[in-house]
Amino acid sequence: MNLINGLLKGGYWPICRVYARRLGDRPADVLLRLLCVPQFLRVNRYWPNFVKPRRFSEKLWSRQLRDRDPKLTMISDKLLVRDYVAGKVGIDYLVPLLWRGDNPEEIPFDELPNKFVIKTNHGCEYNIIVYDKTKLDREKAKQQLKKWLGENFGQDTFLGIAWGYKNIRPTIFIESFIEDHGKVPVDYKFWCFSGKVEFISLHFDRFENYSTLSFSRNFELGGGLNFGLPLYSGTFKVPSNYKEIVRVAESLAEGFDFIRVDLYMVENKIYFSELTPYPGGVTTRFVPVKQDFQLGEKWCDFKIYTLK
């Protein structure tokens, strides 16, 4: 397995990235679609139809390959999307912003609270969670940030087809640390089709004992896809302000054929996390197959493009 992963990351993926870079902002042509098939087969275990996709998995990959709507860049930019959220539902749902800038050397560490989160706006998993700044290796953090700022997440990672991230100007920003009884709060992920929540996945303890639960819109257990992660074994109650959470999610999803809206809940206060156009990217298999088809049918407004 390690050998296969090494060959993918060291040989096959870079070839895809080089060719995707050559296409610039143009939708994927026949060759790039063919280059992506081996990875799709490896993850999903069936031959994809990127031209007339039916399953949710196929449509998700097809969006990465073909959709060049500028809105995808706006919502993928973790700073620009804050303006979008403020305009749709108000600033009260935003995690407080402590600082933003382009130069890691200018971060005012001494002026920051003891806990905070450092992020960059142009990719996924570009986060440094600071639980105690007295224990933070500032030089190491600055070097890590410089490395991230030098990357184009859309072009330089995986197959290089996450187009929404390609044209984002990299920036550092620091947010307040939000927690629920000393832990990272539960991550509510609302899978929205044509502006309507169809199912919810809850993600617990992402940095310790990562597990999930999936519910239908009406909070019936097992209403969505399985992500290959352990199922949460603890107790969970439907929040008293569930209708409000759904309202916020659907307001943010308005105008999108599909979007995943991620929210946090801390003591009945709702915080925006992110909007995700490519959940799972090119490495996640969505099961069961029946549900993959059903959610593909819910993505009924999927854009069809004339391909060359």
Helical amount:
25-40%
Structural class: alpha+beta
Note the main sheet: 5 strands, antiparallel
| Terminal-residue CA separation | 36 Å
Estimate what percentage of residues fall within beta strands.
15-25%
Summarize the SSE layout with pairings.
Layout: H1 2-23, H2 30-44, H3 56-66, H4 70-76, H5 80-89, E1 97-101, E2 116-120, E3 127-130, H6 138-149, H7 153-156, E4 172-176, E5 187-193, E6 196-204, E7 211-216, H8 242-253, E8 258-266, E9 269-276, H9 289-298
Antiparallel strand pairs: 1-4, 2-3, 2-4, 5-6, 5-8, 6-7, 8-9
Description of the structure:
The protein has 308 residues and is an alpha+beta fold. It has a domain at 94-176. It is built from nine helices and nine strands. The chain has helices at 2-23, 30-44, 56-66, 70-76, 80-89, 138-149, 153-156, 242-253, 289-298; strands spanning 97-101, 116-120, 127-130, 172-176, 187-193, 196-204, 211-216, 258-266, 269-276. A hairpin with a 2-residue loop joins strand 8 (258-266) and strand 9. Helix 3 crosses helix 9 (289-298). The two termini are 36 Å apart.
